[in-house]
């Protein structure tokens, strides 16, 4: 049995087993930014066997001085371009950006717990 994940200062825990049956709810929904660092860009490009430049051109948008992963239309909303719609999972999971790896422990959710509970079936209120 997987252990619950905790993060200091958050009024909930996370059960990672929920990801197996969730269908990627954290990867789809409202439009938003999925920020990536230069190191993450390099890692994802390597995984996809692309040059860094080709990866940036094909999969990222530049917003001022930062890059965000492009979105695609998905069931009346949006999804990350790396969300596999058939398998309902991330195609770059092992090199996904830090923003994705730290979900659901985002600062915003400390004060908006009802939103993360609605989005993520793995949330356990403390």
Features:
126 residues; 6 helices; 10 strands; 30% helix
Explain what you see.
The protein is α+β, with helices and mostly antiparallel strands and 126 residues long. The chain has one domain. The chain contains six helices and ten strands. It has helices at residues 19-22, 38-47, 52-59, 98-101, 107-111, 113-119, and strands at 12-14, 28-29, 35-36, 60-63, 66-69, 71-74, 77-80, 83-84, 89-90, 123-125. The chain has a three-stranded antiparallel sheet with strand order 2-7-6, with no helix packed on it. A three-stranded antiparallel sheet has the order 3-5-4. Helix 2 (38-47) crosses helix 3. The chain is globular, with a radius of gyration of 15 Å.
Topology (elements, then pairings):
Layout lengths: L11 E3 L4 H4 L5 E2 L5 E2 L1 H10 L4 H8 E4 L2 E4 L1 E4 L2 E4 L2 E2 L4 E2 L7 H4 L5 H5 L1 H7 L3 E3 L1
Antiparallel strand pairs: 1-10, 2-7, 3-5, 4-5, 6-7, 8-9
Give the tally of β-strands: 10
Oligomer: single chain
Strands side by side in the biggest sheet: 2-7-6
Which whole number gives the mean pLDDT? 94
Measured between the Cα atoms of the first and last residue, the distance is 19 Å
Strand content: 15-25%
- Biggest sheet architecture: 3 strands, antiparallel
Q: How many domains?
A: 1
Number of helices: 6
Shape: globular
Helix proportion:
25-40%
Structural class: alpha+beta
Using the CA coordinates, give the radius of gyration. Answer: 15 Å
- Which runs of at least 5 residues are low in confidence (pLDDT < 50)? none
- List the secondary-structure elements in sequence, H or E: EHEEHHEEEEEEHHHE
């Amino acid at each position: 049995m997987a252990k619950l994940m905790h993060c200091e200062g958050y009024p909930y825990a996370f059960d990672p087993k929920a990801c197996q049956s969730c269908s990627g709810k954290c990867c789809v929904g409202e439009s938003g930014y999925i920020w990536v660092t230069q190191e993450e860009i390099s890692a994802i490009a390597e995984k996809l066997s692309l040059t860094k430049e080709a990866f940036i051109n094909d999969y990222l948008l530049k917003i001022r001085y930062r890059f965000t992963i492009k979105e695609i239309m998905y069931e009346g909303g949006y999804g990350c371009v790396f969300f596999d719609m058939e398998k309902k999972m991330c195609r770059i999971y092992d090199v996904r950006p830090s923003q994705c790896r730290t979900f659901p422990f985002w600062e915003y959710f400390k004060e908006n717990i009802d939103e993360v509970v609605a989005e993520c079936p793995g949330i356990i209120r403390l």
